[in-house]
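Complex record, two chains
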Amino acid sequence: MHDGAISTVFFYLFAASSIALALGVVLGRRLLRSAICLIGVLGSSAGLTLVLGFEFVAGIQVLVFIGGIVVMLLFAIMMTSQGHTFEQQPTLRRRVAGATVAAAFFTVTLSAYLNADFPVPTAEQLAVSHEGADEIGRKLLSNQGDGYIVPFEVISLLLLSALIGGIVIARKHAPEDEESDQDQGLANHPSDVGR
Amino acid sequence: MLHPPTLTHWLALSALLFSIGLYGIFTRRNAVGILLSIELMLNSAVLNLVIFNRFVASGDVDGQVMALFVIAVAAAEAVVALAIFVSFYRHRHTLDVTEANQICHPGNSTP
């Protein structure tokens, strides 16, 4: 989808919505609402990827980022908040520090972008279509010099180890663990049921 | 009416999203809030890779492959971070990162 006017309109639409929702993510005091805003940001980014013409990456972004990561974040927010999902207003010092660092980063990066002379793409280069996953799949699984078979396998191992590590870290301790016994004893006490 | 977006427009958008995430990391105190900002920054990095794939190396698919790798690593990172948060919350009943200054709970030998 890179035919002039329509993609221009969609670019500005998605850019405005993603910036507004990103501000909602960092400025809001309710974590659940921030997570919902993050869904919007990621959806807008998938739209921007679609404007660039990469349908496969946009689909993966919706599936994994929104469908996987944000849903897991929502679970974590609900598991770790006992009714008080508010966060107190950050101190002025933190806000000044954050704004300074963010503005400095943005200024430096933007000036670097403006001073760099990237090769200007010709019209025929921009017309190259990427609307197919077959080339990505071939690149991922090729063992030639420019293939990505080794990182692909390493990623699968990394995901497996993250899965096992997540289960091991987050599981409840064994019953013979002294502290977990105490916790259960406290929870069974009538006055502490609401804890 | 609208100026068609050039490479600099795209890169400025992604840099702006990244700096918003940076601001969030500095101001949030809740650990899940910080993780939300980190996801924002990872998303802008993915966007950057895809933008360069389109405008600078439009004949290749390397940028898209790298974007897929970043997404996979982001998923792994989120899993481990959330497991740590749940474990931390079980011990301390809070997720304030300024409280997270000990690896081991006092008086408890298991981490």
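Note: Chain B touches chain A through 75 residues (CB under 8 Å).
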